[in-house]
């Protein structure tokens, strides 16, 4: 038995009207069967595009409604809230404060950069070398067309992949916010050429604390030309709080400069990246949330090569990525 709901059966048969009826009458849009598949997954696999769109629309609506209700309630978390990625209670990935106090280990394979990894104490992967192409293209999209004396900010160093690529674009100022002491040690000992490069400033604080520190604002009084964010052990609620600070952090403009010269923001979009349907829901939700604060998002599809998945995830407690395509976001302020 697959433990399907009526919504699953309606999706399997492409009955869009029935799907909408069930959703309107309380059907749970993201209920999963024994294999972890939602009705959206079923509709996608059967190529029922209208059914899929109806379920996606409901997922986004519920996401926006949930955020609104939480805001009205003062930001209190529901006791019934579940994590989309299925992390287990007690792991440091669910506790940012605990994560920052826990030990990390770094593995580098000079013969195979894709095997590079940063692991937490629970054998969950913090960052890995397979993300290299994503980071290369992200840095390229962030820096192309910007003034030569560009000012960039990265939140979350990890293995330093994105920072190496940002440096290749010769920024005048390159600020790195990284709160974990083991990551900072790794940065300074394994990448001393970056740590000592002209214009590189390392702020050893959480991004929340860094944004309250006058040092950050004094470094870039006119704002940053490009910002990238990839914090670990934080969920979408935390990321949304960071989103809300972007209008203050990004270099302003009068809206008349060419689109290619406007300040921009990017982040690692790994939200619910073990489920195609939920990934699509988050993609749309992110776009709407960013638009709400004045940013428009362009998405670029980047193929994810996982032919060596067995080696990439060897010894990892839980995969954080299983999809064959990455949605790379580039967000700009003041798009008219």
TrEMBL record:
Domain RMT2: 92-336
Ranges: ANK repeats: 2-34
GO biological process, one term: methylation
Matches recorded under Gene3D superfamilies: Ankyrin repeat-containing domain, Vaccinia Virus protein VP39
Domain of life: Eukaryota
Composition bias, Acidic residues: 76-90
Gene Ontology MF terms: protein arginine N5-methyltransferase activity
PROSITE patterns in UniProt: ANK_REP_REGION, ANK_REPEAT, SAM_RMT2
Region annotated Disordered, chain positions: 72-94
Pfam families named among the record's database cross-references: Ank_2 (PF12796)
Record's keyword terms, sorted: ANK repeat, Methyltransferase, S-adenosyl-L-methionine, Transferase
One term under GO cellular component: cytoplasm
Methyltransferase found in the keyword field: yes
Stored PANTHER family: GUANIDINOACETATE N-METHYLTRANSFERASE
Name of this protein: RMT2 domain-containing protein
Species for this entry: Jaminaea rosea
């Amino acid at each position: 038995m697959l433990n399907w709901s009526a919504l699953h059966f309606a999706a399997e048969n492409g009955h869009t009207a029935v799907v909408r009826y069930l959703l309107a009458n309380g059907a749970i849009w993201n209920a999963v069967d024994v294999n972890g598949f939602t009705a959206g997954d079923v509709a996608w696999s059967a190529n029922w595009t209208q059914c899929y769109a109806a379920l996606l629309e409901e997922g986004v609506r519920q996401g926006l409604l949930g955020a609104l209700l939480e805001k009205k309630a003062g930001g209190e978390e529901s006791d019934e809230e579940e994590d989309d990625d299925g992390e287990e209670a007690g792991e440091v990935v669910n506790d940012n404060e605990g994560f920052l106090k826990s030990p990390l280990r770094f593995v580098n394979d000079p013969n195979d950069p894709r095997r590079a990894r940063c692991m937490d104490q629970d054998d969950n992967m913090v960052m890995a070398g397979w993300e290299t192409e994503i980071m290369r293209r992200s840095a390229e999209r962030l820096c192309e067309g910007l003034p030569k004396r560009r000012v960039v900010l990265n939140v979350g160093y990890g293995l330093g992949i994105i920072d190496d690529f940002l440096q290749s674009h010769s920024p005048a100022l390159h600020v790195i916010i990284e709160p974990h002491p083991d990551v900072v040690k790794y940065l300074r000992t394994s990448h001393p050429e970056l740590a000592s490069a002209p214009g590189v400033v390392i702020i050893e604080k959480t991004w929340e604390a860094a944004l309250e520190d006058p040092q950050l604002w004094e470094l870039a009084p006119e704002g940053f030309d490009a910002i990238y964010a990839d914090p670990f052990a934080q969920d979408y609620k935390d990321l949304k709080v960071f989103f809300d600070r972007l209008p203050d952090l990004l270099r302003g403009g009068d809206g008349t400069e060419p689109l290619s010269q406007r300040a921009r923001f990017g982040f690692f979009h790994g939200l619910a990246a073990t489920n195609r349907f939920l990934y699509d829901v988050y993609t749309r939700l992110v776009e709407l949330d960013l638009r709400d604060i004045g940013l428009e998002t362009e998405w670029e599809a980047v193929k994810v090569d996982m032919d060596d998945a067995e080696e990439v995830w060897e010894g990892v407690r839980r995969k954080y990525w299983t999809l064959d395509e990455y949605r790379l976001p580039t967000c700009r302020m003041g798009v008219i």
